[in-house]
Amino acid sequence: MIALKKYFLSEKEREQYEEKLLEAYPQFMEKIYHLDDEELLEQYKRLEHS
Q1: What is the pLDDT of residue 33?
Q2: Which residue ranges of the chain lie beneath pLDDT 50?
Q3: Other CB atoms closer than 10 Å to residue 17's CB: what's the count?
Q4: What is the dihedral of CA 49, 10, 29, 27, to 10 degrees?
Q5: Phi/psi at 36 (nearest 5 deg)?
Q6: How many angstroms separate the CA atoms of 41 and 44, rounded?
Q7: CA angle 24, 3, 27 (to 5 degrees)
Q8: 3-state secondary structure at position 8
Q9: Is the dihedral of CA 36, 29, 41, 16 positive or negative?
Q10: Chain centroid to CA 48: how far?
């Protein structure tokens, strides 16, 4: 099965989300670069609601 990755954020937007997530969860360092934009935003939303 092939998983389609979804990328729609600008490079600057993505960097901002990555930075905020990594500040809160440094253990995401290796995982975060394998997330597509949709997955990245899902993780960010979880961070905001915690």
Answers
A1: 85
A2: none
A3: 18
A4: 0
A5: -85, 180
A6: 5
A7: 20
A8: coil
A9: negative
A10: 13
**43/48 Cα distance (integer angstroms):** 9
Q: Report which residue type is found at 29.
A: M
Token pair listed for 36: 């597509």
Average pLDDT, the chain: 90
Among positive and negative, which fits the CA dihedral 19, 43, 37, 10? negative
User: Could you tell me if 25 and 47 are in contact, meaning their C-beta atoms sit under 8 angstroms apart?
Assistant: yes
Burial 19-41 (b: 16+ CB within 10 A, else e): eebeeeeeebeeebeebbbeebb
Amino acid at 42: E
What's residue 50's pLDDT? 81
